[in-house]
Structure of Propionate kinase:
Amino acid sequence: MSHKIMAINAGSSSLKFQLLEMPQGRLLCQGLIERIGMAEAQVTLKTPEQKWQETQRIADHREAVTLLLEKLISHQIIASLQDIDGVGHRVAHGGETFRDSALVNDHTLAEIERLAELAPLHNPVNLLGINVFRQLLPATPSVAVFDTAFHQTLDESAYIYPLPWRYYAEMGIRRYGFHGTSHKYVSATLAEKLGVPLSALRVVVCHLGNGSSLCAIKEGRSVNTSMGFTPLSGVMMGTRSGDIDPSILPWIAQREGKTPQEINQLLNGESGLLGVSGVSHDYRDVEQAADAGNPRAALALTLFAERIRATIGSYIMQMGGLDALIFTGGIGENSARARAAICRDLQFLGLKVDEEKNQHNATFIQDDNSVVKVAVINTNEELTIARDVMRIALNETA
Ligand code: ADP
């Protein structure tokens, strides 16, 4: 029996959604409401056949969800609200509580709220999204899908920071990792495409977008990941620095009299590709500038690739080898140049990319003689969310 499942991603001023027919995974409608709370919010709705776009004032998330549900009915995408069989919500932080997605109930809501301390910008707005849907669709089950849950399989040696113990014991400061839904989806898809159980593979996933993270997967479990206590750490990103010498922070704070919030903004919003190139946070813009001869843009691209290579290298050491490397996210899925730069000179590992397949964004881009498979897999977090709703709220596999 097929079900209509809604996958929701609520941000501070936006609401992204997909309505999927499951278990087929058929996209019925997707959309985005942007600039919620501002004078001119923009509502975009798309079905495979049609697109609607309009601008209007939307005061808050409650109004946004109400409007979205009304539009689904008025555009005859659903006949009534009862057509929606389940709702899945992306939630940023599940702390050490959630090792898997969870059915939304009072306990789940209380925990998400408690964990807001660890993700103050995201968990509260995710919670708001869940509550608004619960009010408008009181009889429809919902599931919270956590960015961190997939990484709860990390060993202590991968998640403990070498700080005084009480920071972990009393404040929960440890590596959590993010992008878990994407890492899980693309690694499962790879195993399916290869016809091999994921448990038999040693995989590194490179999720490269505005935010980027890597994940090492062994015996089907995440065993390491590059983002940490927050999504700032690890590889270099669009505007985030990734790992740097931590002493730089107090040094800059003292020299420039910056507050912790200002330092946070510097590292999260002004660094990475943008900071080094001085051109843009967007990989395509930086590529263009590099091609036009801008040396800092060229350096930014090199740094981006080198930091990823270093991380992949450490994961190969940890896993004792590598069977497959996966590229996903806007950059990973589309930039042949990024993939080539990351995979250069790895024949000693048995990894070689076929440049023609790479240029075509083929699913498998390794050379025929390469022992290590190199895959380009489009991520689909919404489908993973919908599958979790089917499994957890409706007891059906998808
Ligand atoms: P987010 O982390 O916000 O979800 P995306 O996964 O959408 O980000 O990735 C955005 C990044 O992908 C941008 O840096 C963008 O320049 C890059 N990107 C998208 N398409 C291409 C392309 N064809 N070639 C190179 N980079 C691309």
User: Anything to note?
Assistant: The radius of gyration is 21 Å. Residues 209-211, 238, 282-284, 329-331, 334-335 surround adenosine-5'-diphosphate (CB under 6 Å).
